[in-house]
Predict the structure.
Amino acid sequence: MKEKRNDTRYNISLDIKIIGINETFKARVSNLSVKGIFIETTKKFPSNSFLDMVIDIVPFDKKIEVLGKVIHSVKNRGVGVQFIDYFKDSKNTINKFVEFISYYNNRN
């Protein structure tokens, strides 16, 4: 299967809180790009469902809130989520964080 995304994904481990109508829970982000993330979880989310998420960007000492859309799921592993909307300065923070990760990955 051909890769559809154009943006580089970086392996990372970040805490995430997913806020639902009936439930709020924590999970882990295992990779990140400027346009989306992969969330490690055994919870099931239908494709095209929307998730309100708060990601803890520890190196920047910031919690950012984004709205995402489930693009694909991997059974018993997690979900790929595309960022749809950014709250406050979240988009800027994500872009700076990805730039930071890229810089340090390229130094090694």
In short: Residues 46 and 70 are 7 Å apart (CA to CA). The longest strand covers residues 62-74. The chain has a mean pLDDT of 90.
